């Protein structure tokens, strides 16, 4: 892998940028691999990268039915934070946040992690109670999260409306300064490049159509649109399609897949300096390096794999955005799109071994998976390599729904991911 | 005079109606009916913007919505500043003020243009490869610099004084696009009598008939026919005609979103006019007649101001009477540009030369051009343009190489062919198919009840278009239920042909070159950027798009996508359809947030619910808090009191005399029917069968998973009638939960549920004097303790109106909740208040309610519980019917982890220092000296200063809490550790004697 | 915004009037207290989440307020049919292959 740097760019500039290597190769699939990862999104690619770099397992294929990074990785609003309530969640999200800091250097790929701060607004007494519970728990977990008055919130984000006359006035905010955003495509591409350089095969346009199991029940490999590919270990990282793949292996999941929409505005000069989220009025917003306001909407109410949702969902979101930022009504929506998010009953992910030997699953990230990408890949690689979960993902089992040991961030806090 | 480039007798505007306007502070004159673009061009102004990355000078590419370059800021006043307005769409009005964007200090001298000099460094995706060292510099230096440079216009900085409106509509046939195809389809449909909506994004209908001088329909000029057609349609009762209206999104089940620009073209819009109007239309059938968009030629410096699409130049001439230059070159790969040259030549403009990539094309337009004496060069390419702020020359070379020749020009018109607008079709989830012969994607497989006609369907020629559209309109009407068809199909007498053309880079901008031949103008994506992306391993067109940002600018790739695709396919060595198109995403053109939001702003953002006594509380100076959609009186400060002083006073008053509290927001559901008690047994943990009529019980509702869902006091009014109360926030979901079980799991039960939250106002009268206050006003109810003990309910009258009088207490004092029909709520309150005044009663708000209940250890679901708390956790095992074999949650709460040891349990906490009030949400630890991360064993759920107890009090969820009574625990705060003692949950009147006090 | 036919009101109404209520035909055991942990997990948490035909519940919240069942394709979001609560899962679906 040739190193990227300003000097490399200068060198290439002199020869018309014709000397760049392929960022990742596009090999034909082999008959057999040590590990197959189903899904070349950020989490799947990160898993392959850490299998190679941390565990020395490079005979790995990442199978992707479309194009790498084309699912939720390339469709989300790129918010990164770790100020979760429960120790289990805080553990995995902060593990990820620590990896974000330095990921560009680790991958030699500028993923543009920007610690611009994530501010979560409180609009009533209940919100204050919930957000302060987070602030205190985070502090004792060593995670930065601080309480702001409405005036401090406005100082941090000048266009925010803190008028008492708003329908739901801002009465305070919790701010995680280490939170922020990153460039989603770069994350997928950086991991793909790093994994590919270490021998991982990234095989696009290769849809898994079946999971083959031996007589003893263990995984033997997968059927794909490009033929059977063998492997004794298969990690499913298929986001909205996790139920579909797991069903092929005979495992029924506690998951439902919903459309989730997002939109960007036309690009404007810098105006929103941080990420602002509000659970009560249901919206979140940041501004990309390019100048677009990046706005996340809620899910539609029904199960769907269509990657499209209703206009009324966007309408409700923009209502909320313009309530928080009345100066934005003359801005224009440039592009809207949908993804499919897989949601568990407790809104926390599943990163675990499964009842099928050799089959592992990493799913259920719902609306908030992007922020976990490096941490998720890191501990999932561990789980696959050792056939044993990393302590950080040990609580995120499938069995927790049977026993009741849930990690219910949503119920506990009513905070959107 | 409205500009030196206005051609007398050309165009359709009335020269008499002039309009003054300014651009970058310079004043100009235009004509009413101009766009800002045509008005500027009439004055010879081509330079109007700077590109996104290289800050290259840019002029108008188009005359319509596909414009990538000419984005301006329109300023009506301090609060009405709109960024990124397409000058080609903005209609001129007298006094219009526009500014260019993304330049400093000025449009003609822009410091950012240094990027253009350094552009070899700024190749596609360069930012992924650098700015990584030193690490800290990304946040402190690189990113802020990138952000400053990026962005186009400037966001408004004041709230928008304009308003927007919204309409829903249904129709039988929705026709999108008002060119020849759309008009023909609309006529055919409308003549059957079905409901038709016809929308077009332009101010005037006609589409390409606005410039297509060769078209004749029904014996008249095409544009005149269009105006007659629209006049006919407008006069029909079953037709709604929407000009200036863009269909931006095609959603499931023929649901189409459109935006109508209502008043941005007016000099002084009346206050009654919205700025824009959102239309959400559900159509039985949709006819897509969205036309085609011309492509530019991809050659070196093809972005210089003065270089534009041929069809645009023709529109400027034939619609607005504006010549885009005096000495114009033409560069084309199809026939349609010839028509532009011919029209301009006839208008007296010099055509320096036509350069045609094709070898030996033949046809009537070519003959006509030749006959007019225009120089035509076949088999040649324009390999570069000269000039900087304005094009000054074009250099021509045989397309397979050879001698160069430079021709002086002041404008270049180009046409690489026309791309069918399949955006809406594609949004409807139809699948496009590639026509290899014509090199274009056209509608293939349909997914919804729609049909494409005319140019957007790849249909060439006006005659075929009108035939196809008329038939499609008639069929759509028939499919939508039309019975009869009458009317006659328009007859096309003459038309032009625009088929064919080329895709990708033109000669001179091929893989062996390093020139800047722009594919995407706004985002500064060149042919070589696309090739570089492919070389770097981007094999999916989506990767190419994202890596280069081709097609991601505000024009969403209307002119660039096909070229980008062709260059990528060529570089990959694959046929175009194998590389595939990127997804067409809504909106078609950018849509104003305000139009989507419409009236849902400020107070209309969400309904506000107020109780019957709200006006009284407001008059008393109450401070309100938001609880869900409700406004609730929070506390009633007297002069000089802050919240704490008011709450202290209110709390003491309730326990010494009495307090009045509005509890109307609590949810209320009447459960009625022969099986009402059976139903209650299933929905609540408590037993209900044996509850006597006239008595009340505190009920707990679980979800099936065994966690507390809601609670409330339930009164049994009769054997078959329960008056159920719920939490304020829980009312709707409890009703839904009950209905769900009644309708789907227990449909055999004969029970009716009625939400009565809004029907009854509830006035809580609490305190030792409460009975004395109420009794004088009550008729027909024995108020004695024997007849009306704690937790009982009676029906009777108060102040002469019906009441359901509950003897119950959420304060621990003798208490009543007076339910009266909501319309009498304030009157009864005032009567009770008057009585209360005789006894020194006070009004108290939600804050005091919280303190008083916490003093007694009464929980609030949603504050002391959070969706992970079982009845046992909350110390409410006593409320779970031990002998019951079924209720919702009975199985869930028996799961292993829900009965495990060490669960968090609700307990009381007393700070060692009674003056210290804990913070709600604060975390509790056993060992305050441990290192971070600390092991947290619980958190404070409720915490108050209790004036009645003379100390602070708190409730908390603590792991194994009930086994820790008397233990000392710690609450580490940023400024020190607070010691607390674990206690029972009752802080005041532990024996409960005051309930009858 | 979907257009949904309420089998009680017998007309198509916009989605805003309805609330989705999750997968259909998951019956609550008449002896739920005696169910195993596994069976309870299947009942309450496990969902088929199909890519294709789904049997689901809706409530005509802002209309007749009735719960009913629907058959919908989760890939196209097109409704195949709707039917009343309590009616059995349809054996044959109109217009659906297989």
Automatic annotation (TrEMBL), chain A:
Catalyzed reaction equations: sarcosine + (6S)-5,6,7,8-tetrahydrofolate + O2 = (6R)-5,10-methylene-5,6,7,8-tetrahydrofolate + glycine + H2O2; sarcosine + O2 + H2O = formaldehyde + glycine + H2O2
This protein's UniProt keywords: Cytoplasm, FAD, Flavoprotein, FMN, Nucleotide-binding, Oxidoreductase
Known cofactor(s): FMN; FAD
Family statement: Belongs to the SoxB family.
KW Oxidoreductase (keyword) present: yes
Gene Ontology CC terms: cytoplasm
GO biological process terms, semicolon-separated: tetrahydrofolate metabolic process
Top-level taxonomic group: Bacteria
GO MF term (any one): sarcosine oxidase activity
Organism of derivation: Rhizobium loti
Name of the molecule in the record: Sarcosine oxidase subunit beta
Domain Rhodanese residues, every copy: 35-79
């Amino acid at each position: 892998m040739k190193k990227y740097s300003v000097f490399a760019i200068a060198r290439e500039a002199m020869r018309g940028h014709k000397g760049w290597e392929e960022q990742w190769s596009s090999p034909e699939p082999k008959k057999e691999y040590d590990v197959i990862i189903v899904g070349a999104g950020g989490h799947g690619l990160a898993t392959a990268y850490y299998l190679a770099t941390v565990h020395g397992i490079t005979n790995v294929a990442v199978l992707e039915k479309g194009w790498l990074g084309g699912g939720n990785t390339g469709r989300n609003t790129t918010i990164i934070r770790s100020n979760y309530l429960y120790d289990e969640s805080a553990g995995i999200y902060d593990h990820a946040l620590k990896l974000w800091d330095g990921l560009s250097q680790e991958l030699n790929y500028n993923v543009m992690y920007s610690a611009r701060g994530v501010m979560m607004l409180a609009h009533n007494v209940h919100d204050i109670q919930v957000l302060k519970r987070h602030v205190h728990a985070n502090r004792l977990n060593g995670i930065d999260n601080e309480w702001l008055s409405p005036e401090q919130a406005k100082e941090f984000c000048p266009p925010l409306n803190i008028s008492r006359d708003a329908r739901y006035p801002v009465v305070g905010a919790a701010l995680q300064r280490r939170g922020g955003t990153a460039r989603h495509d770069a994350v997928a591409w950086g991991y793909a490049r790093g994994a590919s350089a270490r021998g991982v095969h990234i095989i696009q346009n290769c849809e898994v159509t079946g999971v083959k199991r031996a007589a003893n029940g263990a995984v033997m490999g997968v059927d794909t649109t490009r033929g059977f590919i063998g492997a004794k270990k298969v990690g499913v990282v298929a986001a909205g399609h996790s139920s579909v793949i797991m069903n092929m292996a005979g495992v029924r999941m506690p998951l439902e897949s919903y459309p989730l929409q997002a939109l960007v505005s036309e690009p404007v000069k810098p105006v929103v300096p941080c990420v602002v989220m509000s659970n009560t009025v249901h919206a979140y917003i940041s501004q990309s390096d390019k100048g677009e306001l990046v706005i996340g909407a809620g899910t539609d109410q029904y199960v769907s794999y269509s990657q499209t949702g209703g206009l009324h969902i966007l309408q409700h979101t923009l209502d909320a955005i313009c309530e928080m930022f009345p100066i934005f009504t003359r801005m224009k929506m440039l592009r809207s799109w949908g993804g499919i998010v897989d949601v568990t009953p407790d809104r926390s992910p599943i990163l675990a071994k499964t009842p099928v030997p050799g089959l592992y699953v990493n799913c259920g990230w719902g609306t908030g998976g992007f922020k976990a990408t490096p941490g998720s890949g890191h501990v999932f690689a561990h789980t696959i390599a050792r056939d044993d979960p990393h302590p950080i993902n040990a609580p995120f089992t499938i069995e927790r729904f049977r026993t009741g040991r849930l990690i219910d961030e949503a119920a506990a806090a009513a905070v959107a991911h | 005079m409205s500009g030196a480039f206005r051609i007398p007798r050309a165009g359709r505007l009335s020269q008499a109606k002039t309009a003054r306007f300014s651009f970058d502070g310079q004043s100009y004159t235009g004509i009413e009916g101009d766009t800002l673009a045509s008005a500027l061009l009439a004055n010879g102004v081509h330079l109007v913007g700077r590109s996104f990355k290289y800050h290259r000078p840019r002029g108008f590419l188009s005359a319509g919505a596909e414009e990538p370059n000419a984005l301006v800021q329109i300023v009506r006043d301090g609060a009405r500043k709109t960024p990124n307005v397409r000058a080609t769409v903005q209609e001129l009005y007298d006094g219009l003020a526009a500014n260019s964007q993304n330049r400093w200090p000025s449009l003609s001298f822009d410091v950012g243009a240094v990027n253009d000099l350094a552009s070899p460094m700024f190749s596609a995706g360069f930012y992924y490869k650098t700015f990584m060292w030193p690490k800290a510099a990304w946040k402190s230096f690189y990113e802020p610099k990138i952000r400053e440079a990026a962005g186009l216009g400037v966001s408004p900085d004041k709230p928008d004084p304009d308003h927007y409106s919204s309409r829903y509509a249904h129709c039988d046939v929705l026709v999108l696009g008002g060119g020849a195809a759309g008009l023909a389809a609309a006529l055919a449909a409308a003549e059957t009598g079905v409901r038709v909506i016809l929308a077009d994004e332009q101010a005037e209908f006609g589409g390409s008939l606005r410039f297509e001088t060769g078209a004749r329909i029904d014996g008249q000029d095409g544009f005149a026919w269009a105006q007659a057609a629209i006049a006919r349609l407008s006069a029909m009762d079953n037709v709604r005609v929407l000009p200036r209206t863009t269909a931006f999104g095609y959603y499931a089940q023929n649901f189409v979103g459109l935006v109508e620009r209502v008043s941005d073209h007016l000099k002084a819009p009346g206050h009654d006019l919205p700025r824009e109007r959102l239309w959400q239309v559900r159509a039985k059938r949709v006819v897509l007649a969205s036309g085609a968009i011309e492509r530019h030629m991809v050659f070196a410096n093809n972005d210089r101001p003065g270089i534009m699409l041929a069809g645009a130049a023709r529109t400027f001439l034939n619609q607005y009477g504006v010549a885009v230059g005096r000495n114009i070159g033409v560069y084309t790969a199809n026939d349609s540009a010839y028509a532009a040259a011919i029209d301009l030549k006839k208008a007296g403009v010099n055509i320096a030369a036509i350069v045609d990539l094709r070898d030996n094309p033949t046809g009537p337009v070519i003959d006509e051009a030749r006959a007019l004496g225009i120089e035509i060069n076949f088999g040649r390419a324009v390999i570069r343009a000269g000039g900087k702020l304005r094009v000054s020359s074009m250099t021509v070379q045989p397309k397979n190489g050879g001698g160069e020749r430079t021709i002086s020009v002041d404008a270049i018109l180009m046409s690489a062919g026309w791309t069918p607008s399949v955006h809406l079709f594609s949004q409807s989830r139809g699948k496009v198919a590639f026509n290899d012969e014509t090199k274009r994607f056209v509608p293939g497989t349909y997914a919804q009840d729609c049909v494409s006609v005319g140019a957007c369907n790849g249909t060439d020629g006006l005659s075929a278009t009108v035939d196809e559209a008329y038939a499609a309109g008639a069929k759509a009407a028939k499919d939508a239920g039309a019975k009869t068809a009458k009317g006659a199909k328009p007859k096309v007498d003459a038309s032009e042909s625009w088929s064919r053309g080329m895709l990708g880079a033109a000669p001179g901008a091929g893989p062996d070159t390093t020139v800047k031949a722009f594919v995407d103008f706004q985002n500064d994506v060149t042919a070589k950027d696309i090739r570089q992306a492919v070389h770097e391993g981007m094999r999916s067109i989506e990767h190419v798009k994202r890596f280069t940002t081709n097609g991601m600018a505000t024009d969403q790739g209307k002119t660039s996508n096909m070229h980008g695709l062709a260059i990528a396919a060529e570089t990959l060595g694959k046929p175009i359809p194998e590389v595939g198109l990127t997804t067409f995403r809504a909106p078609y053109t950018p849509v104003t947030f305000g139009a989507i939001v419409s009236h849902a702003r400020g107070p209309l953002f969400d309904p506000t619910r107020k109780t019957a006594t709200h006006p009284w509380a407001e008059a008393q100076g109450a401070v309100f808090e938001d609880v869900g959609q409700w406004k609730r009186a929070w506390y009633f400060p007297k002069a000089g009191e802050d919240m704490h002083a008011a709450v202290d006073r209110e709390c003491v008053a309730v326990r010494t005399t009495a307090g009045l509290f509005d509890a109307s927001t609590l949810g209320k559901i009447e459960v009625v029917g022969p099986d009402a008690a059976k139903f209650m047994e299933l929905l609540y943990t408590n037993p209900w069968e044996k509850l006597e009529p006239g008595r009340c019980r505190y009920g707990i509702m679980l979800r099936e998973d065994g966690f507390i869902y809601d609670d409330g006091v339930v009164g049994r009014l009769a054997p078959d009638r329960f008056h159920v109360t719920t939490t304020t926030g829980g009312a709707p979901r409890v009703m839904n939960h009950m209905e769900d079980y009644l309708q789907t799991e227990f449909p055999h039960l004969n029970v009716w549920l009625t939400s009565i939250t809004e029907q009854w106002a509830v006035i809580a009268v609490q305190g030792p004097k409460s009975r004395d206050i109420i009794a004088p006003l009550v008729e027909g109810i024995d108020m004695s303790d024997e007849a009306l003990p704690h937790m009982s309910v009676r029906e009777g009258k108060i102040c002469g109106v019906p009441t359901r009088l509950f003897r119950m207490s959420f304060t621990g004092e003798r208490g009543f909740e007076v339910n009266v029909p909501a319309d009498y709520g304030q009157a009864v309150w005032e009567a009770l208040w008057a009585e209360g005044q005789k006894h020194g009663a006070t009004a108290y708000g939600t804050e005091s309610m919280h303190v008083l209940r916490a003093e007694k250890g009464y929980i609030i679901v949603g504050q002391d519980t959070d969706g992970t708390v079982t009845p046992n956790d909350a110390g409410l095992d006593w409320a779970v019917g031990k002998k019951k074999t079924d209720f919702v949650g009975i199985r869930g709460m028996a799961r292993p982890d829900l009965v495990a040891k060490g669960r968090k349990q609700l307990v009381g906490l007393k700070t060692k220092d009674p003056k210290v009030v804990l913070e709600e949400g604060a975390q509790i630890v056993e060992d305050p000296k441990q290192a971070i991360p600390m092991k947290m064993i619980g958190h404070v759920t409720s915490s108050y200063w209790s004036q009645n107890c003379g100390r602070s009090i708190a409730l908390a969820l603590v792991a194994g809490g009930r086994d820790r009574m008397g233990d000392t625990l710690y609450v580490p705060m940023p400024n020190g550790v607070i010691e607390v003692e674990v206690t029972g949950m009752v802080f005041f009147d532990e024996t409960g004697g005051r309930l009858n006090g | 915004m979907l257009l949904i036919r309420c089998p009680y009101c017998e007309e198509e109404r916009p989605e805003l009037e309805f609330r989705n209520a999750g997968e259909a035909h998951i019956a609550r055991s008449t002896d739920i207290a005696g169910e195993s942990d596994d069976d309870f997990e299947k009942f309450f948490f496990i969902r088929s989440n199909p890519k294709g035909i789904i049997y689901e519940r809706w409530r005509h919240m802002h209309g007749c307020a009735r719960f009913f069942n629907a058959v919908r394709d989760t890939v196209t979001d097109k409704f195949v049919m709707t039917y009343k609560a309590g009616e059995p899962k349809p054996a044959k679906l109109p217009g659906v292959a297989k």
